[in-house]
């Protein structure tokens, strides 16, 4: 049977952490599963943007680097070889149609057929919020960074981090023990991170530059930052080797609109089973909304069994649904 004729039980659109765990859990339920990922490799934004970042909302780990989490999830997906998912990377879904009980997914490489669909595309395509000042664009990835691919690149250097949220604080704490000196620049005296992280920040060696905004950048032997004090005409200069900007990202979930799925404020609206108003199409992770939704990897992991078990019951009602994880061992 050709790939275009093969009908999967489940097609997971999105190969980030939540999509990978969903595929693993579908394997535990012995469901024929396909994962379609638009990027060249699995891991989504964690692999692309945060391979070196410590992730702290995964049960069982006080902290785990993004790349290590993706490696662990990849290994987990192959625990049941007979039910390991088929993985299609570098392939983008452009349209979804339904004929009877079967969905057809039109992709950049052809057509895929599936009895159900799980959408786990996270926040969609992301772009960093950049500095709102003029600077030499050639400095990007040389002295000015929006992503960290390798923390070793900052070893022994003086680093300034701009931002006041969880990501900026996490990078400040991560680089504190690697860089020669770390400054954290924020426009307010208060930070918007987890209480435990903010407490560690105040107890550590990171020098807090608040309340300041970056008003200019000069590149010479060092990167000189012109810092303007908020609600004041006062300025301060800061000479560093590198600047890491963490002002957040702009997201675009245009794919959901293109697929003509039911949206609520640009997010996929789901019910208590993670199912949309279109029977057979489910959503997980940061691309969905429901009352009380929390946008954390841990929350997405918890949503996966809910969706998969509902799909399994609908596709194979004769099978007994597991009541708890240990039953899957028997």
UniProtKB/TrEMBL annotation:
Residue stretches making up the FAD/NAD(P)-binding domain = 8-295
Query: Which positions are annotated as binding FAD?
Result: 37, 45, 50, 93, 126, 286, 326
Q: Which UniProt keywords apply?
A: FAD, Flavoprotein, NADP, Oxidoreductase
The answer, when asked if Oxidoreductase is one of the entry's keywords, is yes
What does this protein's record comment on cofactor binding? Answer: Binds 1 FAD per subunit.
Q: Where is the signal peptide?
A: none
Which SUPFAM superfamilies does this one have?
FAD/NAD(P)-binding domain
Q: What cofactors are annotated for this protein?
A: FAD
One matching Pfam family is Pyr_redox_2
The record ties this protein, via HAMAP family, to: FENR2
Quaternary context: Homodimer.
Can you tell me which family this protein belongs to? Belongs to the ferredoxin--NADP reductase type 2 family.
Protein name listed in UniProt: Ferredoxin--NADP reductase
Annotated organism of origin:
Loigolactobacillus zhaoyuanensis
